[in-house]
Amino acid sequence: MHQTTRLAAAALALSLAACVRPTIVRDPPFMPPILNGGAAVIGQPGAVPGGPLLPLPPLPVLKADFAAKAGSNTVRFGRDSYTLDAAAQATLDRQAIWLVANPGVRASIQGHADVRQTREYALALGERRAAVVRNFLLTQGVRPEQLDIVSWGKERPAVAGAHDATFLQNSRVETVLIRPEPVPQLFPPQPQQLPPPPRY
């Protein structure tokens, strides 16, 4: 009788063991990191609402990286024109890639005109040029809050003089980095666990 009970208990244990499956630990599902809106150009972590803010590199470092990656911060226009040619669009494509990758950086889109126009006309033309550049950058994914528009008209020529070469140089829009803002980090640090106080 006791042996029958032991056999039954052993059979029950074997059947239960067969039903228990081992726990398979898999890697967590891959989630592409949100790195500054795209890719970390300057090595900044990505943005998560509510996360701690991390400082961006100093403005001169950002400007140097922007110049290296975008090639130029300036696009030029023909006389009385605010149409982007192929060269301008290629430059703005590279600028947009950098700005998308660095959403903590703000830029001033500054429109300029040459000295042939009246002051009022030059200011209006500079504004139209800046607006065209800003709209192009927005279509490439740059966030609206990153971009401000300024028109200097003919008040800030790049080069002095009044001939065709200087007119071309001064009919431009410059993308000027103006202010880095801290961005939330992707994985906020966890609070340290303090050991429990000793018991006396």
Give the SSE layout.
Blueprint: H1 2-19, E1 53-54, H2 59-70, E2 74-76, H3 86-101, E3 105-112, H4 119-139, E4 147-153, H5 164-170, E5 172-180, E6 183-184
Parallel strand pairs: 3-4
Antiparallel strand pairs: 1-6, 2-5, 3-5
Helix pairs in contact: 3-4
Taking pLDDT < 50 over at least 5 consecutive residues as the criterion, the unreliable ranges are: 20-52
Separation, N- and C-terminal Cα atoms: 56 Å
CATH C-level class of the domain at 58-181 is: Alpha Beta
Mean pLDDT, to the nearest integer, reads 75
Give the strand order, joined by hyphens, for the main sheet.
2-5-3-4
Main sheet? Answer: 4 strands, mixed
Counted by DSSP, the helix tally is 5
Inertia-based shape: elongated
CATH topology of the domain at 58-181: 60s Ribosomal Protein L30, Chain: A
Q: Number of DSSP strands? A: 6
**Percentage of residues in strands:** 15-25%
Helix content: 25-40%
Alpha-beta classification: alpha+beta
Secondary-structure element string: HEHEHEHEHEE
Task: Tell me the name of the CATH homologous superfamily of the domain at 58-181.
Answer: OmpA-like domain
How would you describe this structure to a colleague?
By secondary structure, the protein is α+β, with helices and mostly antiparallel strands. The chain has a domain at 58-181: OmpA-like domain (60s Ribosomal Protein L30, Chain: A, 2-Layer Sandwich), CATH 3.30.1330. It contains five helices and six strands. It has helices at residues 2-19, 59-70, 86-101, 119-139, 164-170; strands spanning 53-54, 74-76, 105-112, 147-153, 172-180, 183-184. The strands form two sheets. A four-stranded mixed β-sheet has the order 2-5-3-4. α3 packs across α4 (119-139). It is elongated and about 110 Å long. The model is unreliable at 20-52 (pLDDT under 50).
